[in-house]
Write a structure and sequence with these properties.
single chain; about 425 residues; alpha/beta; Aspartate Aminotransferase, domain 1; Aspartate Aminotransferase, domain 2; 7-stranded mixed sheet; about 15% strand; binds pyridoxal-5'-phosphate
Length: about 425
């Protein structure tokens, strides 16, 4: 009998937890506490701030020249758009399937998000759909490297250069992924990351924007620190941040605590990616033997795949035509952790509602361009209705954990007709 109907669950012991906790990260936090310097907007200790040291380490990890840490992934997206001069009335092309923040960041600079469908194989933005959506008002594309996929960056970059569009890579779910040997975030004009608690590199809340362009870096710095930039060689007790003010900024700075945590966690990121990769390979093999169950795969140009979520597509006909939500609940009950659905596509997502805010009520033309309710995104909507997923920490488990997931799919499929 299925666990959801009162039967014995497949798995009753623990799963790996997240965020990852370690003694050295705790020690790094204590050091910041004791140092008395908690923010880059405070006086210098005469040594580089934790925030600057993290920016160097993360830029190196991503093989880019510059990195500007931020308070959130959302603020990194926002300053990326602002640094590229995107604003009032501009159209920015984004996928219909992503976390809501990609879309709200575009509205927050008074630009218009233009949602396009995804490639059903990768769940990332479809290059053909980008091509079809370009107009004379399009200024940028935000490909999102979603779940465990990467957008087809060859095509995105080709379209962008032929139409003179900026590219902001949303890498909130892809720290360390590589496209033909080049790190995610280093291919477009700016790459943005989130270090929110569920992400693979985290400080609870946090983010970063990376670039190879010196001019963009100079703008990003001011945009995240109220118009100030960092200067070198400041004496103890003096301010690190010089008041430049060539651009109006906001305060989107990362605290010293967060920066210290990120530097500590960055050291184990690739080790954790390797463990996830090993387990995902094992799970791919197991799940593929079940008819009607297909793990999302990736193409060979995606040279280093990293997992934020492991996504599985199910053929509902093999599950007595049950709704995805019912399948999700049955799997969760067998395994003892919450199996997740995908993000809701924008046209069905209650979290996306710019017209609920007076600040976007700029003109009738603007509000009419923000409406998307009548649109259809066939592949994004179908993915939402046929995929389940689970978070990356599950892939930090062992072989028994992976076997349990396999057994749960087998069992739920066998007894699918008994689910309510
Ligand atoms: C998490 C996430 C963001 C936003 O990051 P925050 O740090 O929560 O502001 C943006 N885009 C994607 C794809 C995300 O997953």
């Amino acid at each position: 009998m299925l666990a959801i109907n009162g039967g014995e669950p497949i798995w009753k012991s623990r799963w790996p937890s997240w965020p990852f906790m370690s003694d050295y990260a705790k020690q790094a936090l204590e050091e910041v506490y004791d140092s008395g310097r908690w923010a880059i907007s405070g006086p210098s200790l005469g040594v580089p701030s934790k925030e600057f040291l993290f920016s160097l380490a993360f830029a190196e990890y991503c093989q880019t020249r510059y990195c500007v840490p931020t308070s959130h992934g959302s603020s990194a997206l926002l300053i990326a758009l602002e640094a590229l001069g995107i604003g009032a009335g501009d159209e920015v092309i984004i996928p219909a399937l992503t976390w809501v923040a990609t879309g709200s960041a575009v509205t927050n600079v008074n630009a218009i998000p233009v949602f396009v469908d995804i490639d059903p194989a990768t769940l990332c933005i479809s290059p053909d759909a980008i091509d079809a959506a370009c107009t004379s008002r399009t200024t940028a594309i935000i490909p999102v490297h979603l779940y465990s996929g990467m957008a087809d960056m060859d095509e995105v970059l080709r379209i962008a250069s032929s139409k003179n569009l900026a590219v902001i890579e949303d890498c909130a779910q892809a720290h360390g992924a590589q496209w033909m040997g080049r790190p995610a975030g280093s291919l477009g004009n700016i790459g943005v990351f989130s270090m929110q608690e569920t992400k693979v590199l985290t400080s609870g809340e946090g983010g970063a924007a990376i670039t190879n362009d010196k001019d963009l870096y100079w703008k990003l710095e001011q945009l995240r620190a109220d118009g100030r930039i960092r200067v070198d060689g400041v004496l103890r007790g003096m301010m690190d941040l010089a008041e430049v003010g060539k651009i109006q900024g906001s305060n989107y700075c990362l605290s010293e605590f967060q920066a210290a945590l990120l530097s500590a966690n960055l050291k184990v990121l690739d080790e954790q990616h390797q463990q996830r990769s090993k387990n995902s390979g094992l799970l791919d093999k197991l799940l593929k033997t079940i008819e009607g169950v297909t793990p999302i795969s990736c193409d060979t140009r995606f040279s280093k795949r990293v997992f934020y979520r492991y996504v599985i597509r199910v053929d509902r006909r093999a599950f007595s035509n049950q709704k995805i939500d019912v399948i999700k609940k049955a799997l969760s009950a067998e395994l003892g952790f919450d199996i997740l659905l995908l993000h809701k596509p924008f046209n069905k997502n209650p979290l996306y509602s710019p017209l609920s805010k007076k600040r976007f009520n700029i003109s009738q033309e603007h509000t009419s361009r923000l409406k998307i309710l009548d649109s259809k995104y066939i592949n994004a909507e179908s993915a939402y209705e046929t995929c389940v997923s689970f978070p990356h920490q599950i892939l930090l488990g062992n072989e028994d954990h992976m076997n349990a997931i396999f057994s749960a799919f087998q069992k739920v499929k066998r007894y699918a007709a008994t689910m309510q």
